[in-house]
UniProtKB/TrEMBL annotation:
Compartments in which it is found: Membrane
Annotated protein name in UniProt: Glycerophosphodiester phosphodiesterase domain containing 5a
Keyword Nuclease: no
SUPFAM superfamilies linked to this entry: PLC-like phosphodiesterases
Ranges for domain GP-PDE: 226-476
Residues spanning the membrane: 42-63, 88-110, 122-142, 162-185, 192-211, 489-508
Gene: gdpd5a
Amino acid sequence: MVKHQPLQVYEKQVFVSFVTGIYGCRWKRYQRSQDDSSKWECTWFIILCSSFLLLLFWAYFWLVAQNDFNEFNWSVYNRSGEWRDETIPILASTTVGFSYITFLMILALFHISLGQQLNLYWVHKIGVLATLLTTISGLITVKDIWGDEWDILLVSLQSTAPFLHIGALATVTAISWLVAGYVILVTTRPDFLLLIYVIILLALYLAPLTFNCPCIMDRTSLRPRPDIIGRRGAPMLAPENTMVSFNRALQHGANSLEADVTISVDGIPFLMRDRTLRRTTDVSKVFPARQYEDASFFNWTEIRSLNAGHWFLESDPYWTVETLTARDRSRIGNQTVCSLLEMLRLTARSNSSALLNIRKPPPEHPRSRNWFMDTLWAVQKAGISQKRVTWTPDTDRGRVRGLQQTANEKLSVEEIRRREELKILTCVFLFPREYLANNVSVTVYPVNEPWLYSILWCSGVPSVSSDAPQVLRKVPYPIWLMSQNAYNFIWITSDLVSLAVVIGIFCFQKWRMSGMQTYNPEQIMLSAVARRSSRDVNIMKEKLIFSGAALITYTTENKWLRM
């Protein structure tokens, strides 16, 4: 009798070892399993997916919020009293966390596609949980400090929705490979997963019906390019509200200048955004005992003695100081606080217009009742036409004759019509389209990114206020513009291609799985051995043959002796 010992040949599974090793610290073959994952591990997979989606939303928010980074830092400064660029640690931690969670998601999907049991390593569980909690706390903090900024997500979708739709469609189409393999192999309740997948796919196919993109329009309907207002000059290139900043804005094509006006204790209007002088001057060195005092309680001589340029070179609020020449830095370092009279004279010489945000003095201020006359005196002395000067707030209309006023609050169209010659200065996330539909003059702020400028251009906005006129001047045409028919063609074509690919994947997976199920274990083993024609396999075969021959010889001799 001949006994055959089964020959087992284990192929090296480097990729499987890499995937299971990093994801669950299962580097050895005997540690891996192709059994169904436990409910506990499935729960962790759901937590991992939730973390990924939340981080994706968080990363997208900061991507579009780049338009308002300086506004965020200024909001934090008003709360803490210290100027720091808080966006750097946020962006760094977001990049690290998103990369980490995305990598784990890819490994988990590979587990599913390879039929391996999910078993997330405990270190990764701590990391996923820490990332999830950190992201949630970040969302809560931003809502508290910068809650209005969430609305910019809706504005950004007017530009990115068509492209996000194609990306989401490609992702869901690719996931059909995993869904098809799971539905065909699993016999218990596969229809539920298939139903969910079909619903998501149909929702994506019909999503463009809900899109409202201004840049999907006929080219002949495009309105003139919006005018650019230099918001505090060109604060990315020079200190805000200084003469060099206003000059830079005009050099880069700004049509108007915007400034923040404060009235000094002796009635001189000067330019200052903050309530105090701490952030943009060296008041802490010159008047250390008064650095927290309201800027309006300084006289003009004291204000003029302060330096208004060194802070820009030291803090680098827009990460642009390295691009400046040595001559520019020297000029910036010698800047002083600018008066309203100087700014208006520059505006008159350049044949531009001015938009003034006036901060009324507090009630105990000596000029609290005369702030209007002080401002009007500067306008008249500068020699600029009153029709080219617009200011806010929208008060004292009985005293404002010949000057245009603007409101920076959200008003109804009826209220705007009641207030004659009123313009609207509105932030991006409060911009309502009914203003344009009723021929209301609208200026939107802040607009620093080309994509946002393109949306407002397509929407028909007449003017925008920007910290970056040097960037917007390089946008001669909307970033993207297509007709409705062209987009409909792209939309329907992408849906049909996706549907064909999904059907093809399901058919191929069914054919592949049915082919695998027709093999018996002996065929699989023989096939595995046949693929390994290495020298070690040949030696093992020879040893098996010789051992079999020896056993036959021994059995024959033993039988002959008994006879």
